Amino acid sequence: MNITEALSAVMNDVQAVAKKDRNTHQNFDFRGIDAVVNAVGPALRKHGVVVVPEVQTVTYDQVTTSRDKPATACRLLVTYTFCKDDTFLSCTVAAEAWDHGDKATPKAMSVAFRTALLQALALPTDEPDPDTHTYEQAHPVDLAAFDELVEAAKEAGVEKDDAGWATLREWAAQSDGHRDKACEKLARAMDEVAA
């Protein structure tokens, strides 16, 4: 069995790696290095595939986080060579990680290895394709008639402070339905003042 056949067998054994880890600081799900290696490692061993990293380039920069803390940014370009007997297949990936202490390099290497495994083995998340949902941007609500009605209500003696008028306008701007209900409320208020 050559490396291409062995990687194909690994791909057959590992169908997907779900996004089960959570970044609570930035609120997104991801597939961590442990989840990927735990899923892929046994299949690599079963089929006799060894993965060897070779760092092509590495740079370090001192950066400041959004919370004004100093950190080190490590940027890597790493080639991973998948080996089976005397056959080889390589892939090169870029990775970046920041750390406040001395862990920027191992973090970047973890990101690089995870990326190499996910891409070389074409591992999906086993989640619905984002293209199964479509979203359309709502059109801006036309508030011209509402604004005219507000001016007429003010002239008719409907009393609200500036904050009250602003709150009503914000609510009306949320949708055509809200605008229409706000206009109805203004018309009723004008009727009450006139009565």
Short structural description:
With 195 residues, the protein is of the alpha+beta class. Helix content is 44%, strand content 25%.
Word description of this protein:
The chain is built from 6 helices and 5 strands, in the order αββαβββαααα. With 195 residues, it is an alpha+beta fold. It has a 3-stranded antiparallel sheet. A hairpin with a 5-residue loop joins strand 3 and strand 4. The mean pLDDT is 88.
Set down the secondary structure blueprint:
Blueprint: H1 3-13, E1 21-23, E2 28-30, H2 33-46, E3 50-64, E4 70-84, E5 87-99, H3 104-120, H4 144-156, H5 162-172, H6 176-194
Antiparallel strand pairs: 1-2, 3-4, 4-5
Q: Kindly estimate the percentage of residues that lie in beta strands according to DSSP.
A: 25-35%
Number of domains: 2
DSSP, total strands: 5
How far apart lie the N and C ends? 92 Å
CATH architecture of the largest domain: 2-Layer Sandwich
Radius of gyration: 29 Å
CATH class of the largest domain: Alpha Beta
